[in-house]
Amino acid sequence: MRGYDVNKVQIPGTKIKPTRPLLDTLTQELLQRLQGELRNPLPLDSLCQGTLLSRAQYCIDIAERGYRDARLVPTGRMTTVDIAHWTAAIAREEGADDHSKGTRACSSGR
Fold first, then answer.
1. pLDDT tens digits, residue range 32-55?
2. pTM greater than the 0.85 cutoff
3. Is residue 93 within 8 Å of 73, Cβ to Cβ?
């Protein structure tokens, strides 16, 4: 980004043209964030926090896509038994005859 022309830069959706000092400041901040991420990379396992919001919507991510459930200890406070019980209620609430959706969908143990 060092070779940018400040006269050609525009903030999308506005008519504001940022000044060179502003662009330099933003560039430095982004570089510092990148360096921080490189020093402290995210864990290789993928954590699905969607299960904290919806017990049903993100089950496919846990069961089939290899994500780790944020509700599980040590990230959360639930055990695999707790999650299986909580998820089984999905099928009961929907009145489904097939309870396999509710009992196994979010209980991969990840």
1. 988 987 887 666 678 899 999 988
2. no
3. no
